[in-house]
From TrEMBL:
Keywords: NAD. The keyword Cytoplasm does not apply. Gene3D superfamilies: NAD(P)-binding Rossmann-like Domain. Belongs to the short-chain dehydrogenases/reductases (SDR) family. The gene is LOC113740374. One of its GO terms (molecular function) is oxidoreductase activity, acting on the CH-OH group of donors, NAD or NADP as acceptor. This is (+)-cis,trans-nepetalactol synthase NEPS2. Transmembrane segments: none annotated. Pfam families: adh_short_C2. It comes from the Eukaryota.
Length: 260
């Protein structure tokens, strides 16, 4: 990745938290944020070994790893408080952590225990990140940016994975409510909705290699192209930076025209 010139660094001096930052979209975003001059990127995840390796590879001067299970609000609060205590501010929250079940989860056979597990991370976990980031930004008087990872699943139905689709619909509702309520504090809240990306989580659940997953899910209207984590990271950078200073309450599709 080419180093942007100093005047093109879009996050100069910013402090950002990225949940689910140890791999996939979160990792790609952490690397991009660092390249664009972020003072500190806090990678939060439950994959300790991976998260620590990513932080070390980015560099200890501007990247730290914190263990955080977002389904536990106390851990989310502790992560935000640690960031404030250690680095004095919080400018960007990328609430990216998410999961889905391997089971098909059709409505007639819906397992509510599995549904609650998905919701504990994708919905409650995202809400906890938005809540505690908002409180920190309000207390500091910082006109920050909060970005949530939704999905193309957030605006359509499906024949399987009902619990996952429901959870991503809820993320959009959260984002839209938060953008309405936090705008008076100058805090912007948006979401990014990617099409299928062959992340380690996705490939593991589909029992496919990256190459197999990308071949199975090409971008609908862009022949010969598959969505990469870096493509989504570029969209998150836009929403996190001042390039989108007048954009809030927006769900940015990164889907290769899947709805055309």
């Amino acid at each position: 990745m080419a180093e942007p010139s100093l005047h093109l660094k879009k996050l100069e001096g910013k402090v950002a938290i990225i949940t689910g930052g140890a791999s996939g979209i979160g990792e790609a975003t952490a690397r991009l944020f660092s390249t664009h001059g972020a003072l500190l990127v806090v990678i939060a995840d439950i994959q300790d070994e991976k998260g620590q390796k990513v932080a070390e590879s980015i560099g200890s001067n501007n990247c730290s790893y914190v263990h955080c299970d977002v389904s536990d609000e106390n851990q989310v609060q502790g992560m935000v408080e640690w960031t404030l205590k250690t680095h004095g501010r919080l400018d960007i929250m990328f609430a990216n952590a998410g999961i889905f079940n391997k089971s098909p989860q059709t409505v007639p056979d819906l397992n509510l225990s599995d549904l609650q597990h998905v919701f504990s991370v994708n919905v409650a976990g995202t809400a906890a990140c938005v809540k505690h980031a908002a409180r920190a930004m309000i207390d500091q008087g910082i006109k920050g940016s909060i970005v949530c990872t939704a999905s193309t699943a957030a605006s359509r139905g499906a024949e399987v994975r009902t619990d996952y689709y429901m959870s991503k619909h809820a993320v959009l509702g959260l984002m839209r409510c938060a953008s309405k309520q936090l705008g008076e504090h100058g805090i912007r809240v948006n979401s990014v909705s990617p099409y299928m990306v062959a992340t380690p989580l996705v490939c593991n659940n589909l029992n496919m290699t990256v190459e197999e997953a990308e071949a199975s899910y090409p971008l609908p209207c862009l022949k010969g192209r598959a969505l990469k984590a870096n493509n989504v990271a570029d969209a998150v950078l836009f929403l996190a930076s001042d390039d989108s200073s007048c954009i809030t309450g927006h769900d940015l599709l990164v889907d290769g025209g899947s709805k055309i």
